[in-house]
TrEMBL record:
Protein name from the UniProt record: OTU domain-containing protein 6B
Region Disordered, residue ranges: 1-25, 48-119
Phylogenetic placement of the source organism: Eukaryota, Fungi, Fungi incertae sedis, Zoopagomycota, Kickxellomycotina
Gene Ontology MF term list: cysteine-type deubiquitinase activity
Skewed-composition ranges (Basic residues): 93-103
Every OTU domain range: 187-339
PANTHER family: DEUBIQUITINASE OTUD6B, OTU DOMAIN CONTAINING PROTEIN
GO BP terms, alphabetized: protein deubiquitination
SUPFAM superfamilies: Cysteine proteinases (SSF54001)
Sequence ranges of Basic and acidic residues compositional bias: 48-73, 104-118
Protein's organism: Zancudomyces culisetae (Gut fungus)
InterPro entries from the UniProt entry: OTU_dom (IPR003323), Papain-like_cys_pep_sf (IPR038765), Peptidase_C85-like (IPR050704)
Pfam families recorded: OTU
Amino acid sequence: MSKITALKKTFKGNSTSSGKKKLKADIEQLESELKIKHEDEIRRYNILYGDKDNEASKSVHTGESDGEEKGNHSDGGNSTKDELEADEDKGKAKGKGKGRGKGSKSDVPKVETSKQDDIEANINLSGLSLYKNTGGGFTSKSQQRKMKKQKKMEEMMLEAEKEALDMPNYEELESAAIKNTLKQDNLRMYEIKADGHCLYSAISYVLKAEKNKEYSVSELRRIAGDYIRDNMNDFAPFMDIDMDDEQAFLEHIDEIKYTALWGGQIEITALSQALGIEIHIYSASNDYYSSGAGGYKCTVLKIGEGSERGTTESGEAVKLSFHKHAYGLGEHYNAVLRNQ
């Protein structure tokens, strides 16, 4: 049986068709020999015990005597069977009458079948696939791979969750750095809805609150788009558009004016120049390490500084805050106002 186990391992690792055929033949040969040996053991067992059971059965139904039945199997008085049965009777006498009654297990030899079961359970030569006994049934190789992959994925997810717990909260660090700087400048943040129009909504809100000047979001988009179109040579080099493709440039202008396309520094610069105002952007970055706010430091980008009109009528620039980590969808702008 150990040879069969070894051949199965070789069969599993062999990738060639001819090699598998030879191994299959060797395994079948060994199993055939094992089967013959097993049948021989059963035959010997029947010689010792099986015929006696048949005798008892026949004597009940036909009234045949033990002597008559034994006579059918005698070989001149020198039968090995008779000698074995005589030894068995002596053993019974020594056991004080404790015979091999019906259902008794005392005289049934223990046959080790675990290895034989493994041979039959672990290999399926007709399908050329291996199986593993899991105690509750059989699991195919593909199922085992799937279970192993699932377990690995669960381990990876658990590890990712552990790492996430150890990572800093960038949203909180960024917000804390900006708010600390605003507090020092006697300023406060006003939350703007994240809908793709946040830049124009924030500027509109500050202009109304600080300058008492009303511009709708659609008006600010139109002003920015028209100004960029009229000054194409100044803006096109900084846009992700082929300068020779005028049609693509005009289509982008229409997106700025009529869709929820997110606005950035190009649109801020266009509004600053078109409206003649300064626009200050407060943002936090961990590129500049400091002792406060977990390594984040707030900086101020001033766009349109030194322009003809420079500030709002109240003497203040339009102020916004820029956030990279506030929302999962991307960057965002909020309005910044003076504390009353």
